[in-house]
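Weekly structure sync, notes
Attendees: PL (lead), two postdocs, one rotation student
Agenda item 3: pending single-chain targets
PL asked that the sequence for the first pending target be pasted directly into the notes so everyone works from the same version. It is reproduced below exactly as submitted, 457 residues in total.
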Amino acid sequence: MVEFRFTAEKLNGQTLSGSLTAISFYEGKKKITRLAEKNQLKIKNIEKKSTFLYRVRKGKDQPFRGEQKAFTKKEVEDALSRLGYEVLNVNKKLIDFQSKPPQTEIVTFVKISAELLDQKLSYGEILTLLINDTSNKTLRETLKEINNDLKKGADSEVTFLKYQTVFGKFTAYMLGLASKSGNMTEIYKATAKFLERRQEFKKNLRSALITPAVTIFVLFLAVLFYVGYIFPETAKLFVRFGIDLPPMTAFTLKMSDFLITYKYLIAFILFAPAILIWRFSKSKRGGYIFDQYILKIPSLGNLIHKTLIEVYCRVFYTLYSGSAESIEPIRIAAEATGNKYFEDRIKNVAIPLMIQKGTGITDAFTASGVFTETALSRLHSGEETGTIKNTSLQLANYYESETVYKLKNLIELIQVFIAMIIMVVMIMLTLVSAETATVRPKTPGANNDVKIERNIV
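Predicted structure, written out during the meeting:
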């Protein structure tokens, strides 16, 4: 996120200033322009918060370097001077790019914060400890800025949402909400659990889908290289000497000629669909369709579906406090699943039914069509007994146990299947190579002997 500060003038000549955050410089300028048009303001100046590199010295000590974010160079110089430093130079950082911290760093931050909150440490002390011990530069600087903003009395939810590009939208929302909820420890624990489960699920999904796909693709390229380049060098040598080729060798040579002749067409057929599908999945409509049909993949789709329900129920349990305040937890829990189809069905089917027609939670969820019969049955029972909050946690724990166990079994089956494919391919290549090795040139003079025998006859 980029932070902006602007100065504007009212129609009566009064000057005012304000600040806001945006995803990019372009979006920030658009926000400020809309704000000015709405309130009939004349924008006089727009400043973007940047990173400045400084070199300072205190007394007779050796000079040292550092960096600080600010809107102007003068702000940095004044701040350092107030701290008693002699400012040697301050310059704006030319390339101010910060990579997103690894997900493991985010999980570690949230988990440790939850544990320290459970030990009754103040949040300010926790941030100070983690700032000193965090190795990732981006996360460390982000925590410093959050700590400074909170000390100034800034709203925690607004503060964390400023850094949603670092934490992720849902995580930033949950951490910002925690300080205002009165149940900070519980929300941090739930967020840590959510992040751990999502990280574990992505790891298992890579093992189940991405790793096998990459393995098959690399194997396919290796076979193409062998058939299209290595094999013909030997086989065509026999053809030049007029030697008859065995069946498999002859067929493989024909395949090789076909691959070489139509190599660009084959490359297009291989890569174009994958690129188009990837681009389509990144669009709003494509992402919705992709998330919808991924739930229909045999075996794996069912596990993904149950994992989404687990995530939903876990977040709903954390945020839900009563039927009168159920809409916001339902909306946030739907966003937490990360599945556009699941989220859309909850937001545009279930929630409107609850608001406009007063439909109960279970009936609204049934109409959405994204919950299993088991989940609906348990939620209905919880709604009738007034224990829907605890029922959600039980359902989340149940689906966690089921999906973890079944996903591990599925991964093992896929790995066995991939191993069998590799074995079959290697056997076929070995047979072709062995057959090629049996090819022998004709014995010299054999044709002349046949001709002589025919003449005698």
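Discussion points:
- The chain has a mean pLDDT of 82.
- Strands lie at 2-9, 15-22, 42-48, 50-57, 64-70, 86-92.
Action: rotation student to compare against the earlier draft before next sync.
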